[in-house]
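Subject: for your reference before the review

Hello V.,

The reviewers asked for a structural picture of the protein, and I figured it would be easier to keep everything in one thread rather than splitting it across files. Below is the amino acid sequence we used in the manuscript, unchanged from the supplementary table.
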Amino acid sequence: MTGAVCHEINQPLMMLSGYSELLLQDIPENKPEYESAKTIFDQSQRIGIITNKLMKITQYKTKKYLKRKIIDIDAASQSNKSDTDF
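And here is what came back from the structure prediction:
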């Protein structure tokens, strides 16, 4: 299921990334619009990194967060084990 969700997220994400990259090529760096386009591009790249981590999850690992446990995406996406922590 994670792969299907990531695929659906990546489709519009690629459009945002591509168009923002084109804008960066057309807008001079000294214009205020350049920073907005750069932010859109940078954040779309960040989302891409997150979806790649999600697609690599082979088991759930947790970490403490406040008074609860949450899924640790970084640890889970690097794991090769088949058992789970929760």
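For the response letter, the relevant points are probably these. The radius of gyration is 17 Å. The CA atoms of residues 28 and 34 lie 7 Å apart.

Happy to draft the paragraph if you're swamped.

O.
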